Amino acid sequence: MNARTVLVCLTLSWLAAAAPGAAADVAALQHDWAEIMYRGEPDAREAALERLAEASRAELARDPANPALLIWHGIVVSSYAGEKGGLGALGLVKEARASLERAIELDPRALRGSAYTSLGSLYYKVPGWPIGFGSSRKARQHLEQALEINPMGIDPNFFMAEFLFEQGAYAQAREHLMTALQAPDRPGRATADQGRRQEARDLLARVTQHEH
Questions:
Q1: Whole-angstrom distance between the N-terminal and C-terminal Cα of the chain?
Q2: How far is Cα 33 from Cα 27, in angstroms, rounded to an integer?
């Protein structure tokens, strides 16, 4: 599947799912993000995420106080920033942070605390001062908040494990990975769950290497 095919498919998917109501809009974002991240070709990912970020901005402009849309806009834009990389991504990660912080202001428990999960991952992936706003302390704080809301969730446990792995806390990382791998399936999120479980297995293999 080439880049043009991916973009066409995603556009059709968006139009098909964008029935009236924010729930349909969020479902479309979730679906298309998972298709890009876990089924699309890596070479097509940046362009596809750029297009999806534009779509999420348009949806958010129509419903700016919807916490779920704010969260998914933050996820899409931060994913796009990760693919783009370099100094050009700094504006994107700031946009993502602002969207996630606004979601927390409106409803900190929206999507089972997903804003905290995504903010936590931003804080440990973004460079620290003077380049960016990265902070290990804030990363841990937000990830712990996410786990308080959703202790058995696949995403908060995976990202806490990834953070702990980077901190050298391998035993703790393993515990969270095992919880992530045993997390219940999320309705309508089969592709995302399958992809995240594979990421968890890959990280678990790296944890095992460092433990021996």
A1: 40
A2: 10
Residues in the chain, total: 212
| pLDDT tens for each residue of 27-83 | 999 999 999 999 999 999 999 999 999 999 999 999 999 999 999 999 999 999 999
pLDDT tens digits for range 165-203: 999 999 999 999 999 999 999 999 999 999 999 999 999
Give the closest residue to 154 by CA, choosing from 196, 110, 119.
196
In angstroms, rounded to a whole number, what is the distance separating the alpha carbons of residues 176 and 170?
Answer: 10
**Core vs surface per residue 116-155: b (16+ CB within 10 A) or e:** bbbbbbbbbbbeeeeebebbeeebbebbebbbebbeebbb
pTM of the model: 0.88
Residues 6 or more apart whose Cβ sits within 8 Å of residue 33: 49, 52, 72, 75, 76, 79, 192
Question: How far is it, in rounded angstroms, from Cα 212 to Cα 200?
Answer: 19
Q: What is the CA radius of gyration of the chain?
A: 17
Tokens of 176: 């969270």
Distance CA(212)–CA(203), nearest Å, equals 15
